[in-house]
Amino acid sequence: MKTSSKIIWGIILVALGVVIALNAFGVTDIDIFFDGWWTLFIIVPCLVGLFGKGGKMGNLLGLAIGIFLLLYTRDILDFATIKKLIFPAIVVVIGLGLLLGGIFGGKASKMASKIFDDMKKTGKDHKVGCATFSSVDLNADGEVFEGAELVAAFGSVKYDLRGAIIEKDAAISVSATFGGITILLPEGVNVRVTSNSLFGGISSSNKKKEKKCDGPTVYVSGSCIFGGVDIK
To answer: Which residues have CB under 8 Å from 229's CB, separation 6+?
Structure first.
C-alpha cells in the first residue's frame, strides 16, 4: 500500500475510534449508523484508491456511484434526477481521471514523458500508429526503437517489436477508446506500466517480462476507456 494511502486509512480509523470513544462516554452523540452508512464501504475505499497506484478512473467511477447512492438513501436525490446526472457524471469522471493521471502519474508515465521530451530535444521522431474504425499492423524488424504513440478508437493496433533493436529505455504512449492495442515485445526487456482506465486496462500476458532483468525497460503509459492494451 502506498504511504499516502496508509496515512489516509490511519486518519479515518483514528477518527472513527475517537468518535466511538466519545459516544461511549456521552461526550458526543454522533450516529455512525445513519441512513445510507453502508455506502461508505464504496466511497471510502475508492477515495483512498485515488492516492494509490491503481487506475484513477475506476476509483472515480466507484466514488461517483457511492455518492449517488448516499444521496439517494438520504432522500436528497430521486431516481429520475440520478438518471439525468449519469451522462454528465461519466464525462466528469473521465476528465478528472485524465487530470489526476497527469498530476499523480506513476513512474512509467513520468519516465515515458521524459523519454519523449529527450527525443524531441534531439530531433528524433517517434513511431505513430493510429486506427479509427480500422485495424493497423506495425512491424519494427531491424529498426532501432526508442518510442511510439499508439491510438485505437473503435479499431485495433498491433505493434510487433520482437525484431526491433532496443538498446536503451524506451516509451510507448497508448490510448484505447472502444478499441484494442496489442504490443509484442522481445525477450530481455523489462516492462513498467501506468494506466488510467474506465472499463478497461493494460495487461501483460507474459509474466516473465514483468521480472527485473539486465536489459532496458519499456515504459507503457496511457488511458483505456472501454478498451484494452495487451502486452505479450
So the answer is: 174, 176, 180, 181, 182, 183, 195, 201, 202, 203, 220, 222
Element (H, E) at 128: strand 127-132
Q: What pTM was computed for the model? A: 0.59
Task: Find the angle CA(60)-CA(31)-CA(34) to the nearest 5 degrees.
Answer: 50
Task: Read off the C-alpha cell for 154.
Answer: 473503435
Neighbours of 158 (CB within 10 A): 19
Which run of H or of E encompasses 100? helix 79-103
| Cα 123 from Cα 108, distance rounded (Å) | 22
Cell numbers placing 110:
513520468
d(CA 49, CA 62): 10
152-198 tens-digit pLDDT: 888 899 999 999 988 888 889 888 888 889 999 988 888 888 776 66
Contact between 210 and 191 under an 8 Å Cβ cutoff? The reply is yes
Residue keyed to cell 431516481: 79
Helix, strand, coil abundance in the chain, percent, nearest 5: 40, 30, 30
Residues 6+ apart with CB under 8 A from 55: 97, 195, 196, 197, 198, 201
Upper half-sphere CA count for residue 183 (Cβ side, 13 Å):
31
Angstrom distance (rounded) from CA 54 to CA 152: 22
The greatest distance separating any two alpha carbons of the chain, rounded to the nearest whole angstrom, comes to: 76
Tell which residue, 197, 191, 198, has the closest CA to residue 232. Answer: 191
